[in-house]
């Protein structure tokens, strides 16, 4: 596996002095949002130069156009009360992790691959730096932390300004936490909404909120998602074709048929026991995970079926 990159900060030119990186962050954000995207061929060539020859210039050319992905992901976590610039910095670390692990031969666009690493790095940073999470680290509290806004919006669809006691009880029930936890988290999350009302720098009139982009799908993103979806299906098809015949038949019946077929029915059709079908399914999923390698999105799709 390629070692972690030691290239300069991705928002700075390759010759940028590391001590000036914070200034470069503010100065380069708008420029980065306007950088042209790489073509698939350019992406592959740059990734190979970095992976095979540790070409620092190629690494910089590969990651810099994807800073817009870091920025847009960081902004989606703006409600947690942390500085957007810090979120972007952590997202950059995730971007560099993606560059270190990316394998161009797998026919997956770098943006698709990097998105998981960027999001994971930012989410981990939020978890490590919010006091409410540091004092409540159970899975239930983490679920409350990251899902409160979505669930609260659903409950408040009737037009209330804030959660009612009944809504708070329902939220606590869904997430298996106390009503006091919900109330406390609600106040903490609400307090973080002001974080975008600060300027990009001391000598700038522009605010971080000026960088907000429309969350609706844009045509280019739709096209890329469709293309990447076709590539994922093709790659998954190849992985399935490599399975032993009985394991492949079990997975096709369990996960790829129009209607899910029970273990009993599969066993009866194949002349084996229900427990043997379960074993074949587990073996097949293990082989698939190994075959899929370290492409996080594909791994998660398979893992979600277990």
From TrEMBL:
Residues 1-21 are annotated as: Disordered. Residues 1-13 have a biased composition (Pro residues). Residues 86-99 form the RNA polymerase sigma-70 domain. GO terms for molecular function: DNA binding; sigma factor activity. The keyword Transferase does not apply. InterPro entries: RNA_pol_sigma-70_dom, RNA_pol_sigma70, RNA_pol_sigma70_r1_2, RNA_pol_sigma70_r2, RNA_pol_sigma70_r4, RNA_pol_sigma_r2, RNA_pol_sigma_r3/r4-like, Sigma-70_Factor. It holds the Pfam family Sigma70_r4. PROSITE patterns: SIGMA70_1. The keyword DNA-binding applies. Keywords: DNA-binding, Sigma factor, Transcription, Transcription regulation. It comes from the Bacteria. GO terms for biological process: DNA-templated transcription initiation. Belongs to the sigma-70 factor family. This is RNA polymerase factor sigma-32. The lineage of its organism: Bacteria, Pseudomonadati, Pseudomonadota, Alphaproteobacteria, Rhodospirillales.
């Amino acid at each position: 596996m390629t070692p972690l990159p030691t290239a300069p900060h991705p928002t700075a030119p390759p010759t940028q002095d590391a001590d000036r990186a914070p200034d470069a962050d503010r100065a380069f954000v708008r420029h980065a949002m306007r950088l042209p995207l790489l073509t698939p061929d350019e992406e592959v060539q740059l990734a190979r130069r970095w992976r095979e020859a540790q070409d620092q210039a190629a690494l910089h050319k590969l990651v810099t156009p994807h800073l817009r992905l870091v920025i847009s992901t960081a902004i989606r976590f703006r409600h947690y009360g942390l500085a957007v610039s810090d979120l972007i910095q952590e997202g950059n670390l995730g971007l560099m992790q993606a560059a270190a692990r990316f394998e161009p031969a797998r026919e997956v666009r770098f943006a698709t691959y990097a998105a998981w690493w960027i999001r994971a790095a930012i989410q981990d940073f939020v978890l490590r730096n919010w006091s409410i999470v540091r004092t409540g680290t159970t899975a239930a509290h983490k679920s409350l932390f990251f899902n409160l806004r979505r669930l609260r919006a659903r409950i408040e669809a009737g037009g209330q300004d804030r959660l009612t006691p009944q809504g708070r009880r329902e939220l606590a029930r869904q997430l298996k936490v106390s009503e006091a936890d919900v109330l406390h988290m609600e106040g903490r999350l609400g307090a973080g909404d002001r974080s975008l009302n600060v300027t990009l720098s001391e000598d700038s009139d522009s605010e971080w909120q000026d960088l907000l982009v429309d969350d609706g799908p844009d045509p280019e993103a739709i096209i890329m998602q469709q293309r990447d979806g076709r590539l994922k299906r093709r790659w998954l098809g190849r992985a399935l074709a490599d399975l032993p015949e009985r394991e492949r038949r079990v997975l096709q019946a369990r996960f790829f048929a129009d209607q899910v077929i029970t273990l009993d029915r599969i066993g009866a059709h194949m002349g084996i026991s229900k427990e043997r079908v379960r074993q074949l399914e587990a073996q097949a999923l293990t082989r698939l995970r190994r075959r899929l390698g370290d492409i996080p999105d594909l791994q998660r799709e398979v893992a979600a079926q277990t």
